[in-house]
């Protein structure tokens, strides 16, 4: 869950921005049919099986519009939910329930979709000891929500942003003039508490990364045979991450490699939403 400080400092400004995107001056549709405040209730219904994620954000959309809005949650983040299940009841000003509906559902559907997809991928690594990682391939201004959803789904977060760790990718290596030079420059520049990870694409780069003293070596877009050769060569001298177009459909082929990490951008850039809906709105 987001703690109070994170909610206030990081999350609420993003929710307010989303609401402002959807309501630039007024909600004309709601104002047309509901000119005055009327107390009402509506139900949050699950329309397909999945993992629930984002209830705190969903609820905050409505309480930012009106702090008197009541959300009676019947399920919590991380729980498996089923098609047809009642997830929550909301009570408040019908105008608020109508105006906040789309923004709240956008967050909840997206976050639950990421958590659901992550859970399905993570389950394929059960018993292997391999940690499933996300990437920075996230929706702009939604990273905090999507990376939280990965954790709820049973995955792990790679670095949060560019300030969070050293990852020398192909263009960094090209800019530095080679793997050895890039690692040496990173060791001289980065704080000593930062581990240095290097992305490599062939055995020559693997050997350079090991000799340069990289802490983590990312084996990117290699065949299964190339991966085995690289892993045998590294032989515990660095932690190993495997990456490159990893999805739910192909991750099982990597489960026997005995590496430390597998990263997948698909967790955040390709997960479908989980279908949820607000239904049965009525006055009380």
The CATH topology of the largest domain: TIM Barrel
Per CATH, the class of the largest domain reads Alpha Beta
Query: What is the 3D form?
Result: elongated
Instruction: From the alpha carbons, calculate the radius of gyration and give it in angstroms.
Output: 23 Å
Tell me how many strands there are.
12
From N to C, what is the helix and strand string? HHEEHEEEHEHEHHEHEHEEHE
Please list the strands of the largest sheet in the order they lie side by side. Answer: 6-11-10-9-8-7
- Proportion of strand residues: 15-25%
Residue-averaged pLDDT: 97
Annotated CATH architecture of the largest domain: Alpha-Beta Barrel
Helix content: 40-55%
How many structural units, i.e. domains? Answer: 2
Q: Overview of this structure, please?
A:
It is a single chain. With 284 residues, the chain is α/β, with parallel strands linked by helices. Helices cover 42% and strands 20% of the residues. It has ten helices and twelve strands. It has helices spanning 4-22, 28-33, 55-65, 94-123, 143-152, 170-176, 179-189, 203-212, 224-234, 266-269; strands at residues 39-46, 50-51, 70-73, 80-81, 86-93, 131-133, 166-168, 196-200, 216-220, 239-243, 261-263, 276-283. The chain has a six-stranded parallel sheet with strand order 6-11-10-9-8-7. β8 (196-200), α8 and β9 (216-220) form a beta-alpha-beta unit. The chain starts with a helix and ends with a strand.
């Amino acid at each position: 869950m987001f703690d109070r400080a994170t909610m206030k400092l990081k999350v609420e400004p993003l929710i307010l921005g989303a609401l402002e995107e959807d309501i630039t001056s007024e909600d004309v549709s709601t104002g047309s049919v509901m000119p005055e405040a009327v107390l009402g209730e509506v139900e949050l219904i699950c329309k397909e099986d999945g993992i629930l994620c984002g209830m705190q954000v969903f609820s905050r959309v409505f309480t930012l519009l009106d702090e008197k809005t009541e959300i009676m949650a019947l399920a919590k983040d991380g729980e498996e939910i089923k098609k047809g299940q009642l997830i929550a009841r909301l009570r408040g000003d019908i105008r608020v329930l109508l105006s906040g509906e789309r923004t709240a559902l956008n967050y909840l559907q997206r976050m639950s979709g990421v958590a659901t997809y992550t859970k399905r991928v993570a389950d394929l690594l059960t018993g292997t000891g391999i940690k499933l990682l996300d990437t920075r391939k996230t929706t702009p201004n939604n990273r905090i929500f999507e990376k939280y959803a990965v954790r709820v789904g049973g995955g792990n977060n790679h670095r949060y942003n560019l300030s969070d760790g050293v990852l020398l990718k192909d263009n960094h290596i090209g800019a530095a003039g080679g793997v050895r030079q890039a690692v040496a420059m990173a060791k001289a520049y980065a704080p000593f508490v930062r581990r240095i990870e290097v992305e490599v694409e062939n055995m020559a780069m693997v050997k350079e990364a090991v000799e340069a003293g990289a802490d983590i070596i990312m084996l990117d877009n290699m065949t299964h045979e190339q991966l085995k050769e690289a892993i045998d060569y590294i032989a515990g001298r660095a932690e190993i991450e495997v990456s490159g177009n990893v999805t739910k459909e192909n991750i099982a082929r990597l489960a026997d490699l005995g590496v430390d990490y597998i990263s997948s951008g698909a967790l955040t850039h390709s997960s479908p939403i989980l279908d949820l809906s607000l239904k049965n709105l009525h006055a009380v």
